[in-house]
Amino acid sequence: MSETPLSDLMAQHAETRSPESYERFLTAFRDATVGIAAVEVEGIEDRVAAGSTRHGDGLRRLIAFADPEVAAKAPDTQCNAGIAGSVLLQMAIQDPDTAGLLVNSATATISLVISRERAAALIG
Questions:
Q1: Nearest CA to 98 among 107, 106, 89?
Q2: What is the C-alpha separation between 117 and 26, in angstroms, rounded?
Q3: Mean pLDDT on 92-118
Q4: What is the number of other CB atoms lying within 10 angstroms of the CB of residue 86?
Q5: What are the C-alpha distances in Å from 79 to residues 10, 20, 57, 64, 116?
Q6: Which residues contact 95 (CB under 8 A, 6 or more apart)?
Q7: pLDDT tens for residues 48-63?
Q8: Which range marks the domain in which residue 102 is found?
């Protein structure tokens, strides 16, 4: 079994761009432990939040990392904590200021977006 199953699915989707490959990625993301860029919450001791970005189209998205054990070893990585994918999806749904998630591969320069609407459908 691969050390980077989620990144492998991201690479498959980048190659095929098929709805089926995206669905496989989404299901695996929901069920996996994913990495985040944990940041301190200002004014609240011992609290952290998932970091966010406005990369690409300027919309705010929470940053996630596929295969955090590998992603955390990359030079200059922001991946510094792990969280259940389902929990991060729920965080994106509950944050009215975010458009969803931006997921970065641990093995290639590939990022995939998960919209708030898609996150909500995954959580059901």
A1: 89
A2: 13
A3: 96
A4: 16
A5: 17, 28, 22, 8, 21
A6: 62
A7: 889 999 988 999 999 9
A8: 5-123
The whole-angstrom distance between residue 6's C-alpha and the CA centroid of its chain comes to 10
> Which tokens go with 83?
């969280």
Query: For residue 1, is pLDDT > 80?
Result: no
Nearest to 63 by CA among 45, 43, 83: 83
> For residue 91, which phi and psi values (nearest 5 degrees)?
-60, -40
- How many structural domains compose the chain? 1
Pick the closest to residue 81 from 42, 44, 33 (CA basis): 33
What is the Cα Rg of the chain in Å?
A: 14
DSSP codes, 55-88: TTTS--EEEEESSHHHHTTSTT----EEEEHHHH
Helix H or strand E encompassing 38: strand 38-40
CA–CA dist 47, 76 (Å, integer): 23
